[in-house]
Predict the 3D structure of the following.
Amino acid sequence: MEQESSKANDPNPPSELVDATQAAPGSDASGHSRRVFLFNVALFLNGIVGTVLAIPIIGYLLGPALRKRSSQNAWIDLGAASDYPEGETRLASFRDPFSVPWDGQTAEVPCWVRRIRGNDFQVFAINCAHLGCPVRWFAQSQLFMCPCHGGVYYADGSRASGPPARGLFEYAHKVVDEKLMILAGKLPTLAAKNCGGPRLTQIQPTAATEASAAIASQKPGDDSWPA
Ligand code: FES
């Protein structure tokens, strides 16, 4: 007992005791710095993984808007103007500027090209103005005909008969360096020259259609329901 107390009061303690007491704060510091280092590495790796996962999501969300902006004013080359004989209407096709490479054949869009004379062209959307079936050109009768409900159009795209309420839709076009270009990034619109008036953007209800809608909406028990 006496010996122990004398050791404690010894002004020159043994060297192993000195090492032990001095090493403790050092080991805490190195452990702490190792934890900080590992935390930073984990943070860095998480950042990389997060970035890799976020790229396709951001691309998916922003892709359509970016693609739309760049494709809206896309002029598409339909080939040499000389490929289209004067006075004839021929089928052509172009690649949808809004498509992506994996759309494959579905991105090919057909259209009808009519060369009137010189650089005077008309480029029609192939879809019927009624419900969108593809119309066919019959050179013998000089008519476009729709196989779905019998819609018929004249050679200049104007409506001849059948259910369509308007003529065929046309693409804006121009001839540059002997090449026929169409503005395929925008939906084709009804050419004013084909309908003989302002462009139609909406089918206005007539008195007859309003009357039929009113009859269709009647229910048993209504005052107007026939007795
Ligand atoms: Fe062409 Fe109906 S879709 S007439």
Observations:
- Residues 47 and 109 are 43 Å apart (CA to CA).
